[in-house]
Write a structure and sequence with these properties.
TIM Barrel; two-stranded antiparallel ribbon; GH; 3 domains; alpha/beta; globular
């Protein structure tokens, strides 16, 4: 599957700066929850989870009525113009359903009129100087089991199993996820026992329909034949499908780009040399941080910049690579991100922020809106929790300013509440830095990107390009030759960070991490494994050296500094004091610079001096301003050395009477005191 020289070949010289128009023609509950609020408190036969069940539950007529209202309002010419005018977008990735071109099952009649909206979009894009990449986002019987494939496949109602505890409707999806586009998947062996040629033939027919309809439109950049086929897809069958689709495109649209998803396997050994010499072909990979474990900002920054190494390798071994989906999310908090009223087991990793659910873009004519603020979490319930509660919707956590004073650390975020006080909110700063680093990695090395998504129904700027532009996280104007972007990964590229173990980790966990690092480098000789014979501080120092060497060697190939949460990144040339480890309970670290240090006793001495000076000033003010206090002080014999001082400066400062008057005044005070004592009886 290679190509010889082709007279139609055009160099892929233009960098893509694009956004996805997700949620428009392929429904995803987390992007446009307003369409799915109507299914809250639904039962087995009246709840929709995806595009397939949306059409099935509502029926073609009602579903199409609601969809037309949605199509009218979710993507408009004003929005396309706004994206173009930002100067930061030159292309649009349009997810479309296979059912729009070859309807089947509940889709028949449900998507009537959809193609006219797509035609309008192409005209808008062309008039505003933007290109459009067609992305076939769904496959018959699902290519990955996600709701974004049209059908969240691998689904079972479990209401009967929970009836003895409470009368509620429940289901499971993630533990039994399935994908039948390619055929019959054996869950036990994680492989396909049967290949469904009819489904593949259907998908190729959809490609032909798209080529027939749009080959002559000047706005079309190209085609992506399938979005995110899961990692268990038989690679030989997938490559054959890509090859056959490529030939269909080139026969009628020779200048279209043909962009193939990596099937969640960005591996040069898998893709290197595939379709070598074929013009206009590129590889698509999707890079998200939302499903990573919680980390410091340094960890997220470094991970973003490290993608350069992987992308550079793929560009060298395969050719043009595009990051077809990415976002600024560093958590899994966006409502229904992992499915309607559901969540992946173990997610979200940290508590989410809850804010008032936004008003619907569909208006009050849409069933289910506005949300009832008097209702708690409603069913049906999946294996995880995500949904509106009393009018509040979960959203991305805030980043907080660091108590250590070092803005590069991030451990405060792990312990902090999900919503930061306004004066401690550092989200804008962290997101801006993260965006610049991702732009540096994706555009500086690869052939560009498409951000997911152009906007969201709820306010989630980490997932909304338009909101991120408004917040200043992503710069407006041309992203080409932008100095802030070009230098964003400078520190990471220069290895300014090292990977070390956190203090007070279990010995077994440290040894497991060291063993992994040595195995990964094929360092298994006695010379290298003698580290395990060490104990105490000698072992910990040697372990730090092993982990640091491993990270420095492999971080540009995608390795992370994590090792089950036992390690962390620190700035090179910095020390972490034991006192600080105790104070921060190993969850946050502060840095102490190498070099001259001010001793603690000196700080104490300075503090004592300041306190004494303040007390002295207060004494002088009281002596001058309070006659009663002045008289009482002068009555104390122990203070006679001061009150009877012959120094004119002292007497003036303390407002003391002349010495010639002192005995007379003392007698008056004594007389007054005697009279007061007599009045008490």
């Amino acid at each position: 599957m290679t190509c010889s020289a082709d007279e139609h070949a055009r160099p892929f010289n233009n960098q893509i700066r694009g956004v996805n128009l997700g949620g428009w023609m392929v429904l995803e509950p987390w992007i446009t929850p307003s369409l799915f609020y109507q299914f809250l408190s639904g039962r087995e036969n009246s709840t929709a989870f995806d595009t397939y069940t949306f059409c099935q539950v509502l029926g073609a007529t009602e579903a199409n009525r609601q969809l037309r209202n949605h199509w009218d309002k979710w993507v408009t010419e004003d929005i396309i113009a706004e994206l173009a005018n930002s100067g930061a977008v030159n292309s649009l990735r349009l997810p479309v359903g296979d059912y729009m071109y070859k309807p089947y099952g509940p889709y028949v009649g449900c998507f009537d009129g959809a193609l006219q909206y797509v035609d309008n979009l192409l005209d808008w894009a062309y008039s505003h100087g933007l290109t459009v990449l067609f992305d076939i986002h769904t496959m018959k019987d699902s290519q990955n089991g996600f709701d974004n494939s049209g059908q969240a496949l691998g689904f079972q109602w479990t209401s009967a199993l929970s009836a003895e505890y409470v009368d509620q409707i429940s289901f499971q999806h993630w533990p039994i996820r399935d994908a039948k586009w390619m055929g019959t998947f054996d869950q036990d062996k994680a492989e396909y026992s049967y290949i469904n040629r009819e489904n593949i033939k259907h998908s190729l027919a959809v490609i032909q329909e798209i080529v027939d309809r749009y080959a002559g439109h000047p706005a079309v950049l190209g085609l992506e034949p399938v979005n995110e086929p899961w990692q268990y897809t038989p690679i030989d069958e997938l490559k054959r499908f890509y090859w056959e689709g490529y030939l269909m495109v080139k026969r009628q649209a020779p200048f279209w780009k043909y962009i193939m998803h990596d099937s969640f396997r960005l591996d040069p050994n898998l893709w290197g040399g595939f379709m070598d010499g074929c013009p206009e072909r590129a590889l698509d990979t999707h890079i998200y941080q939302a499903w990573r474990d919680p980390d410091s900002r340094i960890g997220f920054y470094t991970n973003a910049c490290n993608e350069k190494g992987i992308l550079a390798t793929m560009e060298r071994e395969f050719g043009p690579v595009i990051v077809g989906e990415w976002s600024l999310a560093t958590d899994n908090c966006a409502m229904w991100l992992n499915g309607f009223n559901d969540n992946l087991p173990g997610f979200p990793r940290l508590p989410c922020k809850y804010t008032p659910c936004a008003d619907s873009y569909l208006g009050k004519v849409q069933p289910g809106v506005p949300l009832d603020p008097a209702k708690p979490l409603q069913g049906p319930y999946g294996t995880g929790i995500s949904g509106p509660i009393y009018g509040l919707c979960p959203s991305s956590r805030d980043w907080v300013k660091e108590s250590s004073g070092n803005p590069l650390t991030g451990r405060d975020w792990v312990k902090a509440p999900p919503q930061a006080p306004q004066h401690l909110d550092d989200t804008d700063n962290v997101m801006r830095n993260l965006a610049l680093k991702k732009l540096d990695a994706f555009a500086g090395i690869a052939h560009g990107f498409y951000f997911w998504n152009f906007r969201t129904d709820l306010y989630d700027p980490q997932w909304s390009y338009m909101a991120a532009l408004d917040r200043g996280w992503i710069p407006r104007g041309s992203l080409m030759s932008n100095n802030d972007i070009d230098l964003a990964c400078k520190r990471e590229d220069e290895n300014d960070y090292i990977c070390v173990f956190k203090k007070h980790q279990l010995d077994s966990a440290v040894r497991d991490a060291v063993h992994y690092a040595l195995e990964a480098q094929n360092l298994t000789s006695a010379t290298h494994t003698k580290v395990f014979n060490l104990t105490g501080s000698a072992f910990l120092q040697a372990a730090d050296d092993v982990i640091s060497d491993y990270f420095e060697k492999f971080h540009k190939k995608g390795a992370t500094c994590d090792f089950g949460g036992t390690t962390q990144l620190v700035e090179r040339g910095r020390n972490i004091t034991d006192e600080e480890w105790v104070y921060y309970s190993d969850d946050e670290y502060r840095f102490e610079s190498n070099g001259p240090q001010i001793p603690i006793w000196m700080f104490a001495l300075i503090g004592l001096g300041v306190a004494l000076f303040g007390a002295f000033l207060g004494f002088i003010v009281a002596m001058r301003c309070s006659p009663g206090f002045n008289a009482r002080i002068r009555s104390y014999a122990v203070l006679n050395p001061i009150t009877k001082s012959h120094s004119s400066m002292i007497r003036s400062s303390l407002n003391l009477p002349a010495l010639s008057d002192y005995d007379e005044i003392k007698q008056v005070i004594a007389t007054n005191q005697a009279e007061q004592d007599g009045n008490m009886f």
